[in-house]
Amino acid sequence: MSAHSGHPSGPGPASPAGAAEFRRAVAEVERGMTAQRLLRRELRLEAETPPRRLAPFAYAVAATASATPGDAEAEIGWGRLVLLFDAAGQPGWDGKHRIIGYVRAELEPEIAADPLINEVGWSWLIEALDGRTTGYRNISGTVTTVVTQGFGGKQDEPTSTSFELRASWSPELSGASSAGLDGHLAAWCDVVCVAAGLPPPAPGLAALRPPRRRPRP
To answer: Of the residues 23, 141, 181, 217, which has the fewest C-beta atoms closer than 10 A?
Structure first.
């Protein structure tokens, strides 16, 4: 399969090692995308061009959360999930699959000032994975709170704050089956939504802030 927007990257037909298994994995992720679109109208999911050098096969999904469904001006959260596949595995993966997740959302300054915000943000991911999947291994990542303040000619611009989570983990799957990858996608979608201030989409996932109110028509 050649790499282009909206499609997996990986070897062409002349190098089929692992290709069928990867196609099954992609189909599972896409089933999860269909389910999330039905559950969360505030969340837009789209396949995008994946990275090409991290593994023989890769598939990427972009997410945008909006306070008002379909309104580009009401976007409040963003994310990217990358599914990597290597039939031979790679050091630190403990398996053939690896998932990379990224989440970004704007924060109110008083929330960004909370000294526990990074720990709470990481707990969103752990709780979502625990609640949505059958297991994961070798998880690692970072949570960053960014404060942007203007000076000089920009000193009158309002201070902006944002939240960023970057993580990677190996999904626990049964043999050659990719069943369960839809749960990992759902967990990542949960984190995108909660970081953006939308109501918690899964039981047990605590919101750090009240849900954003949608503007009246």
So the answer is: 217
The answer to whether the pTM exceeds 0.90 is no
Q: Which long-range contacts (CB under 8 A, 24 or more apart) does 159-163 make?
A: 159/109, 160/106, 161/106, 161/107, 161/108, 161/109, 161/111, 161/112, 162/104, 162/105, 162/106, 162/107, 162/112, 163/103, 163/104, 163/105, 163/106, 163/107, 163/112, 163/117, 163/121, 163/195
Please answer whether residues 185 and 36 qualify as being in contact, where contact means their C-beta atoms are separated by less than 8 angstroms: yes
Sequential pLDDT tens for the chain (217 residues): 333 334 566 554 445 568 889 999 999 999 999 999 998 888 999 999 998 889 999 999 999 998 776 666 678 899 999 999 999 889 889 889 999 999 998 877 777 677 788 898 899 999 999 999 989 999 999 998 887 777 877 777 777 788 899 999 999 986 555 678 999 999 999 999 998 888 766 555 655 554 443 333 3
Annotate 121-140 with b (16+ C-beta within 10 A) or e (fewer): bbebbebbbeebbeebeeee
Strands 97-107 and 160-171, sheet pairing: antiparallel
Listed by start position, the domains of the chain span 19-195
Residue with tokens 């000294």: 115
